[in-house]
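Dear colleague,

Thank you for sharing your sequence with our group. We've completed the structure prediction you requested, and as agreed, I am returning the results in plain text so they can be pasted directly into your records. Please verify that the sequence below matches your submission; if there's any discrepancy, let me know and we will rerun it promptly.
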Amino acid sequence: MRVVGPDGEQLGIMDKNAALDLAYDRGLDLVEIAPGATPPVCRIMDYGKFRYEKEKKQRESRKKQVVVELKEIKFSCNIGIHDFNTKINHGNRFLKEGNKVKVTIKFSGREMTQTDNGYVLMDKIAAALEEVGTVEKKPSLDGRFMTMFLGPKKETPVKTKEKAEPKED
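Please find the predicted structure tokens below.
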């Protein structure tokens, strides 16, 4: 097996017993790093410290993860303008927080005969939230409910070109 020292230096190819003796003399462990390589690669290191560092990196990466929730906003087909604006403000806030939004319109009774009004309302909602969100799934009618999914807009960094100042001769 190929043996790598604790500082990263190559110690060469040796048999298993010699590598174990070398690690034992240094008070460290022999850890197999690349078992699929020919010959397998082992490293002399403190395995407890290695495990601790690995777990520490995993904890840090979990802290940096962003959890995206799905928030739902329910509308009715005949909604007043004030109620509409209030629900749009909620959707605006949800999208700014980085959450996805499920917009649902419930048709009750004879409203089912006028599902075109639902598509018009969905277009109105998408237009009102287009600054902070994009439509991920177009409106679709499923039974008495029409649903549409919106996702937060990806922030694209604005590149500013610095103009070179004219040189004076």
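Summary note from our side: Confidence is low (pLDDT under 50) at residues 156-160.

Kind regards,
the structure core
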